Amino acid sequence: MRTKSESREKVYTMSEMKGELRAFESWWKVTPYKGKKRSSLTLSEYLRVLGHYVEEHPEGEYTLASCREWVAAEMDRAPSAGRWAARALKAFDKWQAGEYDEPEVLAKLEVPADPTPTKIPMAKPEEVAKMVAACGGEWVGLRDAAMIHCLRSTGMRVGELQRMVMEDIDLETGVVTIPKTKNGQVRKSRLDPHAMQALRKYRRGMGVAEYPHVWESALGGQMRPHSIQKRFTARAVAAGVPHVTPHSFRRGFAMQFFRGGGAQTYLMTLCGWNSNEMPGRYLKAVAEDESLAMHERIFG
Fold first, then answer.
1. What gap in Å lies between CA 214 and CA 146, rounded to an integer?
2. Which of 85, 100, 115 finishes a domain?
3. In the prediction, which pLDDT does 209 show?
4. Are residues 288 and 236 in the same domain?
5. pLDDT classification of 236: cutoffs 50, 70, 90
6. Which of 47, 124, 158, 182 lies 20 to 30 Å (CA to CA) from residue 39?
7. Is residue 18 part of a domain?
C-alpha cells in the first residue's frame, strides 16, 4: 500500500494497484456492514471487475475521467456490466478515501440506471434439458447435472448452492434448508424428484458420502462459486445455449412458479426476497405473455 501523503488521482504502477486491491480484499473480509458480514460473492465480482480495469489500463491511470470512460465502454457491452463496473470502482474508491483520510476521487461517478428489461432472460425447460444431456455419464458430468437440477427446482443463488452441505438436505422429502442467504435469513426450498434422483446418482458416483459438503471439485475439496460459474458456462456452450447463466435458472424458476398458479408471497419465501420489486418484474412478464395468449384465444 502507498503512504497517506501520495495522491490517489495519479498514475499507478501495475504492482501498486494490485497491492491496493489485495488490501481492499483484506478489509472487506474483516469489516462488517451494518453489523453483518459482507458478501463474499459481491467481493468476488468486485475483484473480477477491478482486475479487468487494471488489465485494460496497464499505464496505471486512475482518474474520474478514465473511470467514466471505462464505465461507458462497459455499458456499451452490456448494461449489467456497466453497473457492476461503476459499483466496483466506487466501492474501491470509497475504501481508499477512508483508508487515507482523503476525498473520494470518484464521488461524481454515477452508477448507471437499471432499466427494467422488456424481455427477462430465463432458462427454458428445453434449454435445461439440453444442458443436462451435454453433461454425459462421467462422474463430473453427474455432478454438473445434479447442480443444474438443483438450481432449476429451487431457484437458489449460486452462492447458496455452493455452500450446501448434506445435513441441509432431507433425503426423504427433498426439503433443503438454506442457512446462509444473501439477506441473512434462513429459508427452505425443495428438490423435486428429478433433482433428488440426479443428486443420488452423483453422490453414488463420488464414493465419498462422508464428505459434509455437497459439491466436490475434480481436484478435491469443496467447489468455489467461481468454479461453479465456469462449469455452467461450459455446459451451456456445449449444449448450444451459451446465453443461459446460473442466474437465469432463478428467473426460470420464478416464471414457472407464477405460470403454475403460485402466489407472489410464497415465491418471495422460497427465493428469499424481502421486497416485491424482483417478483413483481417476473409477475408482470408472465401477465404480459398470458394476456397475449388469452387475446389470441378470444379474438383469434
1. 10
2. 100
3. 56
4. yes
5. very high
6. 124
7. yes
Q: Which three cell numbers stand for residue 85?
A: 463496473
Q: At what angle do helices 225-238 and 139-154 cross, to 10 degrees?
A: 100
Looking at the fold, whether 151 and 248 belong to one and the same domain comes out as: yes
- pLDDT at position 281: 81
| Residue 196 confidence (pLDDT) | 96
pLDDT of residue 184: 67
Q: Looking at the predicted structure, is the pLDDT value of residue 65 above 70?
A: yes
CB 86 within 8 A of CB 94: no
DSSP string, 207-268: --TT-SBS-B-TTSSBPPHHHHHHHHHHHHHHTT-TT--HHHHHHHHHHHHHHTT--HHHHH
Distance CA 239, CA 254 (A): 23
Domain count, the chain: 2
- Domain identity same for 164 and 84: no
Domain with 282, as residue range(s), is: 125-299
Beta-carbon count within 10 A of 176 CB: 22
d(CA 100, CA 6): 9
Global pTM reads: 0.63
Rounded distance, CA 52 to CA 252, Å?
Answer: 30
Between 117 and 150, the higher pLDDT residue: 150
Contacts of 90 (CB under 8 A, 6+ apart): 104, 106, 109, 111
We report the CATH number of the domain holding residue 250 as 1.10.443.10
Which residue type, as a one-letter code, is found at position 163?
R
Q: Looking up cell 459438503, which residue turns up?
A: 213
The CA-based angle 259-264-267, given to 5 degrees, is 85
Q: Helix or strand or coil: residue 178?
A: strand
